[in-house]
Design a protein that fits this description.
It is a single chain. Helices cover about 35% and strands about 25% of the residues. Helix 1 links the parallel strand 1 and strand 2. By secondary structure, it is of the alpha/beta class. It has a single domain, classed as Rossmann fold (3-Layer(aba) Sandwich). The strands form two sheets. Strands 1, 2, 3, 4, 5, 6 and 10 form a seven-stranded mixed β-sheet that branches.
Length: about 170
């Protein structure tokens, strides 16, 4: 099997990069071959992402629901991509206590964008165990991806990644 997964992330503090690298290492160690190619979204173009049919996007949410700067700059490129026949999984970082009304909003914002362009969003997760008021990432009672809170629940990060990855791989067809 030679399917490749493109994992694209944006980071300002390094936390999203740390989680992205953790995910890449875990997936590549589970499979008999390395299949995840890691890309920082900074200065990427539509063609960098469009060559993948299996995509993971990782992004933090800043302050009152703001997008990470590099992801915000990528939006015009994202709008050039036809996501038909592509499967997309999301993970994001947020602060559920400090920004309880905007927790991991960027996941919801980008999920809506790729859905509008024909993508199938996969690997939804439960909202149980989180304490937030509202999130654009919440769709039909579930998060549209994996939400990580390294500020308040860092001790749950590994466990949450380990529970999420089998869903991603299964829905990606591995």
């Amino acid at each position: 099997m030679d399917k490749k997964i493109g994992l694209f992330y944006g980071t300002d503090t390094g936390n999203t990069e740390m989680v992205a690298k953790n995910i890449v290492e875990k997936i590549n160690s589970k499979l008999a071959y390395a299949c995840v190619e890691l890309h920082e979204i900074y200065q990427k173009k539509a063609e960098d992402m469009s060559k993948y049919d299996l995509i993971i996007m990782g992004q933090p949410t800043w302050y009152d629901g703001e997008l990470q700067g590099d992801w915000e700059e990528f939006i015009p490129e994202l709008k050039k991509i036809d996501f038909s026949n592509k499967k997309v999984a999301f993970f994001g970082l947020g602060d559920q206590y400090g920004y309880a009304s905007y927790f991991c909003d960027s996941l919801g914002v980008f999920a809506d964008m790729v859905l509008e362009r024909g993508a199938k969003v996969v690997a939804y997760t439960s909202t149980e165990g989180y304490e937030h008021d509202y999130s654009k990432a919440e769709k039909d009672g579930q998060f549209c991806g994996l939400c990580i809170d390294v500020d308040n629940q860092d001790e749950l990060t590994e466990e949450r990644i380990d529970a999420w990855l089998p869903k991603v791989l299964s829905e990606f067809g591995f």
